[in-house]
Amino acid sequence: MTATTPSACIACGRGPDDIPLIPLDYQGARLWICPQHLPVLIHDPTQLTGRLAGAEHMRPADHHD
Ligand SMILES: [Zn+2]
Question: Tens digits of per-residue pLDDT, 21-57?
């Protein structure tokens, strides 16, 4: 059995009482992120290092050169 994790944004920790949350399936776990922080996951995932396993190895979706 896996422990029940309360749904909260992986970036800011806000829950569904405060903000809509988008579910993420990742490494067999259900994670949540809010719309405000979805761009962080897309463009700057290393900011989630320590909150999201392996985030330091993720690559941003695109670059703005
Ligand atoms: Zn958030």
Answer: 999 999 999 999 999 999 999 999 999 999 888 999 9
Provide the domain limits for residue 18: 8-49
54 Cα to the center of ligand 1, angstroms: 18
Residue 54 lies in a domain: no
Task: Tell me: pLDDT of 1 over 60.
Answer: no
Considering its fold, how many domains does the chain have in total?
1
Q: 29-33 and 22-26: which strand pairing?
A: antiparallel
43 Cα–ligand 1 center, Å:
14
Phi, psi of 5 (to 5 degrees): -100, 125
Instruction: Compute, in angstroms, the gap from residue 59 CA to the centroid of ligand 1.
Output: 20
